[in-house]
Amino acid sequence: MYADHTHHSPTARAVEVLHPTPLPPAAVHPAPMVPVQPGAVPAVTSIVLPDGQIVTGYTINHPQPAPAVAKPAVPRTAVNVALGGVGFLAVCGGLLLLTSFIAALTAFITQLITLAAVIFGGWIAVQLFSASGHRGSTIVNIRKAVIKRSHFHG
Questions:
Q1: Based on the number of CB atoms within 10 Å of its own CB, is 14 exposed (0-12), middle (13-18) or buried (19 or more)?
Q2: Which of 41, 97, 108, 112 sits in a 20 to 30 Å window from 89, CA-based?
Q3: pTM > 0.85
Q4: Which residue in 62, 81, 63, 79 sits closest to 71, CA to CA?
C-alpha cells in the first residue's frame, strides 16, 4: 500500500531541467496601434513616501460608484405582513364584539318576552280566580227543558 522507502544519497537523484521552446516569428501577431487622443492632459502629482523617497506620476480619477439607495430598516414585505396581521386582528375583534352584542340582544329580547308572558298570564289568572266572581257578570239559570214534537216545553 505504501511505497518502500529506500535511502539514496543526495547525489543519486536525477534532476530534470525543462527549457521553453520559443515560438516562430510568423506565429506572433502584434496588436495594431490605435492612436488615442486624451480628453485632457492629466495632472502630475508628487508624493513623499515615509522613507523620504519622492514619487511623481499622473493622477488617475477613479470612477465614483453610484450612491447606494438607502434601504429601509425593515423590508416592505415584513411591513405588509404586519399590517395585514393587525387588520385581521381588528376584524376578528370587531366580529367578536358583534357576536357578543347579538347574543346580549337576543338574551334581552328573550327576557322581555318571558316577562310579558308572566305578567299577562298573571292577569288572566287573577281574572279567572278572583274572589268576587259576580261583580259585573250576568247570572244565567239553566233549567231542564223538554223538546217534544219540535215544540219547546219549558
A1: exposed
A2: 108
A3: no
A4: 79
- The grid cell for 116 is 310579558
pLDDT digits (tens, 9 = 90+) for 95-154: 888 899 999 999 999 999 999 999 999 988 888 877 655 555 666 666 666 666 666 655
Query: Which tens digits make up the pLDDT trace of 47-106?
Result: 888 888 888 887 777 778 888 887 778 788 888 888 888 888 888 888 888 899 999 999
